[in-house]
Amino acid sequence: MTANEDQEMELEALRSIYEGDECFKEVSPISFQFRIGDLEDTKSFLLDVTWPETYPETAPEISMDAFFNNKISVENKQLILSKMEEQVEANLGTAMMYTLFEWAKENQETLMENHKPVVSAVTLACSDVTASPQKDKKVKKEQLTKAQKRKMISRADNKGELPRGWNWTDVIKVGEMYLSSSIFQKPLLTICFCLPLLVRCYINAALK
Predict the structure, then answer these.
(1) 3-class DSSP state for residue 208?
(2) What is the tens place of the pLDDT at every residue in 112-132?
(3) How far apart are CA 6 and CA 166, in angstroms?
(4) Mind giving me the DSSP string for 88-100?
(5) Cis bond upstream, residue 163 (ω within 30)
């Protein structure tokens, strides 16, 4: 009997034994997945098995690279794989898939005895996303009082712009303040000191 014939017979046997079993998945005629333990079990793990062309005369390839095993430490994976390799060596040359799977099921507790869930990079990334980071506080703009807003609106035109010279009243107030001073009681001094000041205030107000 050739290796291909052995594989075909074992494949038919696996399909018959594990039909409807959610723990068993036929990925291809030479590749399989077998879950040891229930989905809710924190100590469950998944075995990926692939047959080389010369199986069962040569050992099947067994790995634990599936995402399902992402919380199992590297050391624990190596322990499981080394124990599985021992069973492969003991059954080399025979149809061994059923024997391997059942042995792993019976020894699950021993194989995962020292299991401590690993916090993976994916888990950390998810926790960072779900955490609500504090947003940078925006600097609040200075708010005008209602009286200041009404005053600004009353001065604005229909486009919302303030007309030129809207603060000329301030120029007049400045002039009145200086004129009320005793130094400006004499007409000549008033003209000499006040006229340049009023002209400067007028220019500044017109430019605003």
Answers:
(1) coil
(2) 998 988 875 544 444 454 444
(3) 101
(4) HHHTTTS--HHHH
(5) no
Helix (H, G, I), strand (E, B) or coil at 12: helix
Rounded to whole angstroms, how far apart are CA atoms 174 and 79?
Answer: 93
Token pair 């703009």 is found at 141
Residue 166 DSSP one-character state: T
Record the tokens describing residue 16, joined without a space. Answer: 């018959």
Q: What is the pLDDT of residues 35-87, one digit of tens each?
A: 999 998 999 999 999 999 999 999 999 999 999 999 999 999 999 999 999 99
CA separation for the pair 191, 183 (Å, rounded): 11
Rounded Cα distance between 66 and 36, Å, is: 13
Task: Report the C-alpha gap between 66 and 174 in whole angstroms.
Answer: 85
